């Protein structure tokens, strides 16, 4: 299995990483191993999970177990009210133009005092089990901070895996833009929470999306799933249950929430096992 299957892992902070790992482990335990996908698309949190899942060095169960460790020594970041307000202003000023919105957010990210890029890169490097692109096709999304153009990094792009994942996770206003090939990049979630349109052409697609919101400038996971279905693909969209959303809390960047989110994902996976098996089977 693999060539006509795609797994899309969306953004959603540290709780998103934990929840996605719980879902993946739970589905694998039910007999649906999504690590066999021919294509994995990772955005932000999903890029961290996708890079590990495709490495061949850890199983879905081991990925899940990695989320359960003590997080008490990890720093807590937060998307503050002032930063959220700047996002809103960028959207209002874009006047319906998605690229203009991304450029405005990119300008905000470039101007923000969010620490040293090298230090942030070290954090992401430590989370990955391998720093080499996998043999299985992995696409990591980001956005050019200057032009607003989307980027889809893979092993043929010339970008290193750690740099690509760091760029995909560079939440504007929280962490610094990341330099790849002389250009600065920000979180791929600024274009789309999942970037599931990159799975176009695949017959069977599973989308795991911690964030469900969208707008006319940032397509929602549901809208992208609908477009894939309209093209003839079999698509399963998995979004957080009410229990999982409660566990996430108000700050998805709080590391203390990662383990509870992973357990919530593992519990929720049973609800989707039958449908996932139907979508994933030839």
Attribute tags:
10 helices; single chain; globular; 14% strand; 8-stranded mixed sheet; 282 residues; alpha/beta
Quick structural overview:
With 282 residues, the protein is α/β, with parallel strands linked by helices. The protein has ten helices and eight strands.
The chain-level structural class is alpha/beta
Gross morphology: globular
| Residue runs with pLDDT of under 50 for 5 or more positions | none
Largest sheet: 8 strands, mixed
Can you give the mean pLDDT? Answer: 96
Structure, explained:
With 282 residues, the protein is an alpha/beta fold. It has ten helices and eight strands. It has helices at 13-29, 45-53, 60-66, 81-94, 98-111, 117-127, 161-168, 221-230, 242-248, 258-280; strands at residues 5-9, 39-43, 137-144, 150-153, 178-180, 183-187, 204-208, 234-238. Strands 1, 2, 3, 4, 5, 6, 7 and 8 form an eight-stranded mixed β-sheet that branches. Helix 1 (13-29) links the parallel strand 1 (5-9) and strand 2 (39-43). Helix 1 crosses helix 10 (258-280). The protein starts with a strand and ends with a helix. The mean pLDDT is 96.
């Amino acid at each position: 299995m693999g060539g006509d299957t795609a797994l899309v892992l969306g953004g959603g902070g540290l709780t998103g990483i934990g929840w996605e790992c719980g879902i993946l482990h739970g589905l694998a335990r039910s007999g649906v191993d999504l690590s066999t996908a021919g294509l994995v698309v990772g955005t932000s949190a999903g890029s961290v999970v996708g890079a590990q899942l495709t490495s061949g060095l850890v199983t879905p169960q081991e990925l899940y177990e990695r989320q359960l460790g003590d997080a008490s020594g990890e720093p807590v970041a937060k998307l503050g009210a002032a930063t959220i307000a700047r996002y809103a202003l960028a959207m209002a000023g874009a006047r319906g133009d998605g690229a203009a919105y991304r450029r405005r957010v990119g300008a905000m990210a470039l101007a923000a005092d969010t620490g040293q890029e090298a230090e942030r890169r070290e954090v992401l490097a430590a989370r990955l089990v391998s720093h080499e692109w996998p043999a299985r096709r992995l696409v990591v999304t980001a956005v050019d901070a200057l032009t607003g153009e989307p980027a889809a990094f893979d092993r043929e792009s010339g970008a290193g895996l750690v740099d690509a994942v760091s760029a995909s996770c560079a939440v504007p206003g929280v962490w610094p833009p990341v330099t790849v090939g002389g250009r600065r990049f920000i979180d791929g979630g600024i274009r789309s929470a999942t970037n599931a349109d990159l799975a176009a052409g695949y017959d069977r697609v599973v989308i795991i999306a911690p964030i469900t919101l969208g707008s006319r400038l940032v397509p929602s996971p549901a809208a992208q799933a609908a477009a894939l279905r309209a093209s003839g693909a079999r698509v399963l969209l998995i979004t957080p249950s009410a229990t999982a959303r409660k566990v996430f809390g108000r700050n998805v960047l709080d590391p203390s929430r990662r383990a509870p989110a992973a357990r919530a994902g593992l519990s929720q996976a049973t609800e989707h096992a039958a449908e996932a098996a139907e979508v994933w089977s030839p």
